[in-house]
Design goal:
GO terms for molecular function: sigma factor antagonist activity. The protein is an alpha+beta fold and 293 residues long. 30% of the residues lie in helices and 35% in strands. Strand 10 and strand 11 form a beta hairpin.
Length: 293
């Protein structure tokens, strides 16, 4: 006879509770509710129009035309679902269509699906998007005035203050930006292994080949820096910790650094910078470590 222990039962109930409350289940439930509502409206419509069909060909033709219009309506959008991570957290989520997103530290992504479109908004931070193939439902990620449209592909988007970049790992995407109502939309097509940056005025950089392994290293909790200005390296390092590294010397900030760092390991980063540039810790507070010469 199976021995059902109290601890095992509690674990099962806890697991079921977590499944019930997960954002993925909420997303699937919202989409299913919208679909059920659409089907119910169609059934009511049929019941109203079916008696008219016996009255003559005109009534039947009108009914068929009306049903054609209704069946081609878009399924109402589900309520947007917000995915977010805390400082230092990296998390993967599987969406209702089978696509997978990875949220970097301190990142917010909003997801809203309809029958014809998969719309996501990167509100802040950085995300990786592994898109399930579906030509009938484009996968669109908006960030600021910019957007990336894909059908089935894999790409990264960084939306940091003053820094917007899109990196394509596989497939093909169209990156678009609309700076303003009076300015036409600009577009650029990326091929695998290319990255494009977008300036605040909506100007694209020239697509360039990059090391996609280094670009994606954050998904494994690492920062792969190659000949990067210290100012940019500090911006990336500080995203993963509430305790920030501060360097005030402009000569140091303009220098470049290379190496692989563990995301969120502030002390190791400080030790590396001190060794690399001959710096020392000048002051420490709960929120900052100030280093310099």
């Amino acid at each position: 006879m199976t021995d059902l222990r109290t601890g095992s039962i509690d674990q099962v109930w806890n697991a079921l509770g977590e499944l019930r409350d997960s954002v993925t289940v909420a997303e699937a439930r919202a989409y299913a509710d919208a679909e059920a509502e659409r089907i119910q409206r169609q059934r009511k419509f049929w019941r109203r129009l079916l008696p008219l069909s016996v009255g003559g060909g005109l009534a039947l033709a009108t009914a068929c035309a009306a049903v054609f219009v209704m069946t081609n309506q878009t399924v109402p959008a589900s309520q947007p679902i917000l995915y977010s991570t805390k400082v230092g957290e990296i998390r993967q989520e599987k969406l209702a269509d089978g696509s997978v997103i990875v949220l970097d530290t301190n990142t917010r992504i909003e997801v809203a699906f309809t029958a014809n479109k998969r719309q996501l908004t990167l509100l802040s931070g950085q995300g990786h998007f592994d898109v399930a193939h579906n030509p009938q439902r484009p996968f669109v990620v908006s960030f600021g005035k910019n957007s990336v449209t894909a059908v089935g592909t894999s790409f990264d988007i960084a939306a940091f203050p003053g820094v917007n970049a899109v990196t394509l790992l596989t497939g093909r995407v169209i990156v678009a930006v609309k700076p303003g109502n009076s300015v036409p939309t600009r577009e650029v097509v990326l091929n695998p292994g290319q990255q494009v940056s977008i300036a605040g005025n909506g100007q694209f950089s020239r697509p360039r080949k990059v090391d996609t392994g280094a670009i994606s290293a954050w998904q494994q909790g690492q920062l792969d820096l190659s000949d990067m200005p210290v100012s940019d390296a500090l911006m990336l390092m500080n995203r993963y910790s509430t305790r920030k590294i501060v360097v005030k010397d402009p000569d140091v900030l303009n220098n470049k650094i290379s190496g692989i760092f563990q995301a969120g390991d502030t002390q190791s980063a400080v030790d590396a910078l001190n060794t690399y540039f001959g710096l020392t810790i000048k002051e420490q507070t709960e929120n900052e470590i100030i280093i310099g010469r």
